[in-house]
Amino acid sequence: MIGDAQSVAGLAIYWAIIGLMMTGLYAVIARENLIKKIMGLSLFQSSAILFYIAMAKVTGGTAPILIEDKHAQATRAGHGAASAGADGTNHAAAEVLYSNPLPHVLMLTAIVVGVATLALALAMVVRIQDRYGTVEEDEIVQQDLRSSLRRAFKPAAE
Amino acid sequence: MPSSLQQHLPVLTVLVPMLAAPLCVLIPNRAFTRVLAILASAGSFAVALALLASVRESGVPIHYALGGWAPPLGIELRITLLSAFVIATITFISTVVLAFEARGLSASGLPESRLNLFYAAYLLALTGLVGMVATNDLFNVFVFLEISSLASYSMISLGKDRRALVAAYSYLLIGTVGATFYLLGVGLLYQVTGTLNMLDIAARLPEVAHLRSVAVGFVFLMVGLFIKLAVFPLHQWLPNAYTHAPAKAAAMLAGTATKVSYYVLLRVIFTVFGAAFVFGQLGLARVLLPLSLLAMFVGSAAAIYQTDLRRLLAYSSIAQVGYMTLGLSLQNADALTGGVVHLFNHGVTKSGLFLIVAAMATRAGGWSVDAMAGAAKSMPIAFGGFVLGGLSLIGVPGTAGFVSKWYLVRGALEAGKPWVAFLILLSSMLAVVYVWRVVEAGFFQEPQAREGFEASGRIPLNMLVPAGVLLLASLVFGIWTEPTLGTAASAVEYLLSFSNSGASM
Fold first, then answer.
1. Full domain range(s) for residue B402
2. Is A55 at the interface with chain B, CB within 8 A?
3. A36-84 pLDDT, tens per residue?
4. Which residues of A touch B164 (CB under 8 A)?
5. Number of domains in chain B
6. What residue of B is the nearest CA neighbor of A117?
7. Which CATH number applies to A5-57+99-157?
8. Is residue B484 part of a domain?
9. Collapsing DSSP states into helix, strand and coil, what is residue B27?
């Protein structure tokens, strides 16, 4: 695996995924603006989706469409890009090689989940803007602090 | 019961609330949706009881292939004694909580005419939770996890206070990060095993256990589940979410959501990875034991300083999660039985407490400990209920909380860690302090007239009875322990034997 140009390229995608993931996570943690946090969250989720798609890739594999009936069982589901590729070359002569479709299907679900999360988060931000008049986290914290202080000292003042 | 229906019981537990939820959206009649929601939840509970009885009788798990697709291709449900027990617990709690009629302070921020949407979200949350327990497919757990999470975020955001929105938003952020971590963990495992079925993964893991992907995948799964379970340093979302959520949502989530995560944690550790790998090779206990102990002390200590009753209960929940994970990290049957039975005991107790606090706050006009001044006189039955729940939180003999703590202490001694047993007792003393603060206010302080608020009448029965049922359950199952403790003990026995045979395969 090491020293093989193809495998280095195969690992490069993982570095990209990690980079994307950390960018997203950083935005979720460090940004004050609630919308920017959601953008970070979406990046973070996308990195997971990319991760699945990357692992489904089989070098030289075609789209997982049934070409002839007897080739239905061409590749076994599973295996990472590198090992599936190695697996594939062994059988390539006898069977049609295609990418593993299962992770794609899983990611369709994950994308739906991601969209639902995004929609819900944005709806919440709209409501927060309605009730607080801002979408900046520090201002919201300040407002909450102020109103709870007011509540705490009201009985004493009376 | 016709055998064809009997055969489909596993999927019915999930399906009943799932189908009722869209009906709640389509038929915007408040009374109708309320009854429908209660019926759906009760139906799910009835099915869960039937499953529990049949698994207890046969002693073997029930396998169910969704849509008739056999496991390697399709998704499989697998009901073990433990999962039937957990499903029965959460559907029982959710049914009783649904019967609670929230009004006044404890109501949600939704206008009356749109309350059907709350019930839809509630049923979806229940669907997700039951599904997480029933499924035998790691990816399917993620899907159900997100169903329940999304529904809970929206329920929490419906609280009256505007802070509910911020609480729900932060829960959404951290919850989604947790779920994505879980998803990455599943991906790493899929990459090395080529399957998503938990049993198939378990069978193939020994060949690849030396790979780093397996260890990293395990850590990703754990971090994701720890966030959902609110294990100590990852608990930040919980206090705000439970404090500002509508009373019913808080009571339901407090009794079920973290419990289900605990169950999934057990399943991943014992069924998928095997105890030998997790505790022997990876040494999870070295991390989990200190975190559990910290949770017990930090949670209880923070609860002491809270002025808001809901927040007090929320911090106490963090401590109680600590007891459950402690049972896991002590690695013997007694301690694990304590952890599992605590899942039930704490679930009913905490849900009951959230309901009774909502009822008392509605009557007293405030959520603070001070608002409870003189409550023992003005609402003796409700306050008696609170004291009962509080005693169970502390773990006084005769209550459900005692049973689980007794087994935890036994487990700690058996594990050769008497200092852990001592710390369990010490942290219970902290629980005495935070429960006592409320008791003191109720019994020994004069009620103060609150401006602009007239304490009127008694607490209506449709608030008192559901809370009472849960709190009495925490008393009844503290004395009549066979159904809970007996089930938990044999479930744990099965889990451990399964885990050992899996590891040796």
1. 283-496
2. yes
3. 999 999 999 999 999 998 888 777 777 777 766 544 444 444 444 334 4
4. none
5. 1
6. B150
7. 1.10.287.3510
8. yes
9. coil
